[in-house]
């Protein structure tokens, strides 16, 4: 299978395809982009309010991003109780550091995920926990990480079974990737972050992230069963 075909397969299975790989040509896409930019600006307004001591504003930031952070941590650790602890610590640390964050052109969520990532790395160093777990436990109502999940509400039981099997198989393949490739796939596709946001979190330049994503998609194409390619 060629790499473009592999990328199309991953894009169809995973919740949010790469925005960098799909040029915005349709009106609906433009409207989605405008809504996303408006949401990003609103989130930064909440940050600025929280920096002025508005605790309600930080509470709204928590409500907006807690699921994003929790899903990321659960994907990395695979332990619900530990994921809840790390998520709580993420927001406590963010609250203590809220005055230090400044706008850098990306969504506030990337900052929260960066804090969570650092906590996970600290946990790895202290406990030698291996970051090899990718779990389908995060696939819950309203938080499904794969495309087409919303359509399952109208799908019959046979289609739902096929979709679940596809998700499970893809997660198995993602778990077989190297750590850097796996994290890139989680951030870019499962979390829907941009190349720039992923680069900031992984502390690499955008060119390196694009190359890493390219290799990860190629590897997934090799790992996926023939029927899913």
Summarize the structure in words.
- It is a single chain.
- By secondary structure, this protein is mostly helical.
- The termini are close together.
- It is built from 9 helices and no strands.
- The longest helix is centred in the first third of the chain and has 25 residues, at 27-51.
Cα-atom radius of gyration? 18 Å
The helix content, as a percent range, equals 55-70%
| Overall mean confidence score, pLDDT | 74
Question: What string, H for helix and E for strand, traces the elements in order?
Answer: HHHHHHHHH
How many β-strand stretches?
0
Low-confidence stretches: 1-9, 11-25, 128-154
Content-based structural category? mainly alpha
Architecture blueprint of SSEs:
Layout (H helix, E strand, L loop, with lengths): L2 H11 L13 H25 L3 H23 L2 H18 L10 H20 L29 H19 L3 H12 L4 H8 L3 H18 L6
Observed structural traits:
9 helices, mainly alpha, 229 residues, single chain, 0% strand
Briefly say what this structure is.
The protein is an all-alpha fold and 229 residues long. Helix content is 67%, strand content 0%. The model is unreliable at 1-9, 11-25 and 128-154 (pLDDT under 50).
